[in-house]
Amino acid sequence: MTGFVSFVGSGPGDPELLTLKAVDRLQRADVVLFDDLASGPSLGHARRGCDLVSVGKRAGRPSARQEHVNRLLVDHARLGLRVVRLKSGDSGIFGRLEEELVALRAEGIPFEIVPGVPSACAAAAAAGLPLTRRMTARRVQFVTGHDATGALPEDVDMTALADPSASTVVFMGKRTFPELARRLIARGLPPDTPALLAEAVGRPEQRLDRSTVRALAERLGEGIGDMPALILYGPLAFDETEDGLPGAPFPET
Question: Regarding the domain delimited by 119-233, which CATH topology (the fold level of the hierarchy) does it fall under?
Fold first, then answer.
């Protein structure tokens, strides 16, 4: 018997941002292998009796090895089960999706990829910002803030990242942003370039802090905290209100 694996992007954490297809796959799954950032309310859509298995990875914490995750996917599918691999945001963006696809293809196990709302888009939306601006921000670029060792990657294109006309989103970059900012400024990025630190996007504890590249680097150099975060910088369209962030949610009827 051969089962089926659905790679499901859970979005940033708000269960209301799950797609209809994501909810359907959770409701029909026999087992859900979920990341830390994909846990919480989204798992409430899993059907009763479904096995929920945490395989999350967090920097600086005990984490499941990727080889172990691959083996769990294969083993459950070989039992003929419907497997959901639940990842945060969109599973194809810095989610190590390719390694898991390779493992399934090697065993001849069928799969599908269900896209999710990228956390970068959710962060911009929560802050009331467009990621692109006509005549000002013609390009959007996503970059990881650390390599396999936890350090700032040495093979990134600093010239591209210092482009003042690009909106840049740094994933998993709180620890390395002070060094990244130093290099960006050395490459010509204005120190007062707008920056946004978006923490715990889509969760009740969400925090959005407007800043500049230099000021944010100085702040993160003093301490980074435990909340997962994205950093956005570039020609962000901050408004002229006190904090530059949107107001209260749409009132419930």
Answer: 3.30.950
